[in-house]
Design brief:
The protein has 703 residues and is an alpha+beta fold. The chain is built from 16 helices and 33 strands. Strands 6, 7, 8, 9, 12, 13, 14, 17 and 18 form a nine-stranded antiparallel sheet that branches.
Length: 703
């Protein structure tokens, strides 16, 4: 993701500090700590990349309420504790104001006024409501949006519509308000020790169709205490207060970030992040669903189906689309055609190989054979794209170069313009072959070989295995820097190694493309204080020319990046120092997450932890953000050494858990129609719930 916009939500939010974001699927709100969404700012209620409420201001006798506290009990809900300003000459107020807000394809807000005094009090309550139906990009970039709406007031309802009728809004309230085109107004007398309440619902309208809200599902789930996604997926518990808090927050945030762009339930995926990226991102959604496999393998299948349906079919320089290419970003707003690369932008080099590799992984994790076979043509389309368009010079490496100056200059996960550079800080010249992308490509060819073998296509299996082996050999020759003891981050357009020490080779460990000899040296490099900030692995060594701990990609810490490196280190657990470093990096992430209220943000500054504690926030970091939220799940899996191979009726555990974690438990893990319970501590593990016939007949393995 590039060019994120400001976000600073915490639990709780003290008076006067930051904005508050709550999110559910493609709906999110950004507001001030008193709950108001103020005009002239990047605030409001957003639905499907459109701001449907641009002003939502509460006034008590003409004055804004004073904030006391914000508590976000879930990513999609928040409670704003306020008070009526004290009367002139008085220090205290006797009227408590509570705004409880929940979003989900609309918004519900309950306003409660509680008189804590003995005398009755009279109050005039006004709620100003406006909308501009502005495109998300226009709001994010601070553009002035001309009014294209008209409003009508009918009884207790407010109705807004865009001039072209493509978007609309219905606001309904209880408590017998007076309505006008400016909003709603109530007058109430609240007895001593008494309370008064109103409920307001906001319903978006798209193409003259009112959208059924999802917040009612969340409310029903709370009342019934069952039926929600979180109660259906695996439950992961750790006897470590910090990690336990992080895992609970991660699951809640992933729940809120789940969306679908179709009515197909099986096409649910995880949006990239709030507030400005509540949409499908190929790379982000693929990696997030991979990390979340122990929680819900269905997210990965949904992601694959969604991306397969949007796979490139033609060559279009305006959007970087090419046949077989996997989408980078999807936009749904009214002005999305004017966004970067249009509404469907394909400028990513790594989503394709990650797609194929993930398909092989979900096959091992028990995806239905019918689903895997249905997705195979898309995977083969990706492999063809990798050879025809991704490797235009035929050297065996996958490379990128944008089609026009409108696209992203860098198309890997470090996609800022200066994200790839050499040790002196010089920027890369395209076409660019990234180190981690070769690792992803290696994993893709290995995955396709495994699928071919499973489905009886031995010729395809042999050809794909040969490609993987040749790529592994060629990668070591071209990317390894023997004098430095690490891999180049990339090869430039002249095939010259970009010799900066970065976190990118850690992803290569994760995919298994690295030899044991090179892994041992890489572990030593990552263990240095120039890479390990104490709060996670830096994206760039502080010894490099472009290092800046406050940069987006050149010295900051990205939790998902560190998590992938941890998983890579655990893949090479037999290499001296790998497990110890993985444990240390995980401790750093947990410490950082605890400082952020249990929620790992998209990134934070890479200052050393022994000098700057708590970690310094990056000012425009997304939170919640998909792969940051999923990162703790990948770490748990890596430390458990958990690998499923459902087609071979095998489950493998090789736990190497930190001592401080105590016992780690995974409940309701699906396997061959059963729900397993895994318990592990240190290097010991136990599995309960294995199907007896399968255990007896199929050689189930626990190591």
């Amino acid at each position: 993701m590039t060019n994120p916009a400001p976000l600073n939500a915490s639990e709780p939010v003290p008076h006067g500090q930051g904005e508050v974001t709550i999110v559910e699927g493609t709906t999110f709100s950004i507001c001030a700590p008193n709950g108001d969404m103020n005009p002239g700012a990047a605030q409001g209620l957003f639905f499907r990349d459109t701001r449907i409420v641009s002003c939502w201001q509460l006034r008590l006798d003409g004055q804004p309420p004073q904030p006391l506290q914000v508590v976000d009990r879930d990513a999609f809900a928040a409670r704003f504790m306020l008070r009526r300003p004290p009367a002139p000459g008085h220090a205290d107020s006797s009227l408590l104001v509570v705004r409880e807000r929940i979003v989900g394809q609309g918004m519900r807000e309950v306003i409660t006024l509680q008189n804590v005094g003995y005398e009755p009090t009279m109050i005039t309550l006004d709620l100003r409501v406006e909308t501009d139906f502005a495109d998300l990009f226009a709001v994010k970039e601070g553009q002035m949006v001309p009014s294209v709406t008209h409003a009508t007031a009918t009884g207790v309802n407010l109705v807004f519509s865009r001039s072209d009728n493509s978007r609309g809004l219905l606001v309904h309230a209880t408590g017998e308000p007076t309505s006008s085109h400016n909003g709603l107004s109530w007058q109430a007398v609240i007895p001593g020790r008494g309370r008064w309440q109103t409920e307001i619902e906001v319903h978006p309208v798209v193409e003259s169709r009112r959208i059924e809200p999802r917040f009612r599902d969340h409310l029903a789930a709370e009342d019934a205490d069952d039926g929600s996604w979180r109660r259906q997926v695996s439950a992961i518990r750790v006897q470590h207060d910090g990690m336990s808090l992080v895992l609970r927050r991660s699951v809640r945030d992933l729940d809120a970030l789940r969306i679908s762009i179709t009515d197909e339930a099986r096409q649910t995926f995880v949006a990239a992040g709030a507030p400005w990226f509540m949409t499908l991102f190929g790379r982000d959604s693929l990696l997030t669903s991979w990390m979340a496999l122990p929680l819900d393998p269905g997210l990965a299948v949904g992601t694959l189906y969604t991306l397969a349906g949007l796979q490139g079919r033609k060559v279009d320089p305006r959007t970087d689309e090419e046949p077989g290419r996997i989408l980078h970003e999807l936009r749904l707003g009214p002005e999305s055609a004017s966004a970067l690369g249009g509404s469907h932008y394909y400028g990513t080099i790594d989503a394709g190989p990650l797609f194929v590799a993930l398909l092989g992984e979900v096959w091992r994790w028990g995806a239905a054979e019918s689903d895997v076979r249905a997705l195979l043509p898309a995977a083969d389309g990706v492999l063809n794209w990798m050879q025809v368009y991704g490797d235009r010079d035929g050297d065996g490496f996958v490379e990128y170069r944008r089609a026009t100056d409108r696209g992203l200059f860098n198309q890997g996960w470090k996609d800022s313009f200066d994200g790839i550079n050499d040790a002196a800080g010089r920027l890369v010249e395209p076409p660019v072959a990234l180190a981690e992308v070769q690792g992803y490509a290696y994993a893709a060819w290995r995955a396709r070989a495994e699928l071919a073998e499973a489905f009886g296509d031995q010729a395809c299996a042999a050809a794909c295995t040969e490609r993987a082996d040749k790529l592994r050999e060629r990668f070591a020759e071209a990317f390894w820097l023997p004098d430095e003891g690490y891999f180049a981050v990339a090869l430039d357009g002249h095939k010259r190694p970009m010799d900066a020490l970065t976190s990118n080779p850690g992803h290569c460990l994760w995919t298994g493309i690295v030899s044991d000899e090179h892994a041992a040296q890489l572990v030593q490099k990552f263990a240095g204080a120039d890479m390990d900030s104490g709060f996670g692995l830096r994206t760039l060594s502080e010894r490099m020319g472009a290092y800046n701990p406050m940069s987006y990609h050149n010295g900051s810490v990205w939790p998902h990046d560190t998590a992938l490196c941890i998983a890579g280190l655990m893949r090479y657990a037999h290499v001296p120092g790998a497990v110890e470093l993985a444990h240390r990096l995980a401790d750093g992430l947990i410490a950082a997450a605890t400082a952020f209220g249990g929620r790992l943000p998209e990134l934070y500054c890479g200052f050393p932890a022994d000098v700057y504690r708590p970690p310094v926030p990056y000012p425009t970091s997304c939170s919640p953000q998909a792969w940051a939220s999923a990162a703790p799940l990948l770490i748990v899996r890596a430390f458990l050494g958990l690998d499923l191979d459902v087609p071979r009726r095998s489950i493998v555990l090789r736990p190497r858990l930190p001592e401080s974690w105590g016992t780690v438990t995974v409940d309701r893990l699906p396997f061959l129609g059963a729900k397993l319970r895994i318990s592990a501590k240190g290097t010991e593990a136990e599995i309960k719930g294995l199907p007896e016939s399968s255990a007896a007949e199929s050689g189930l393995v626990a190591e």
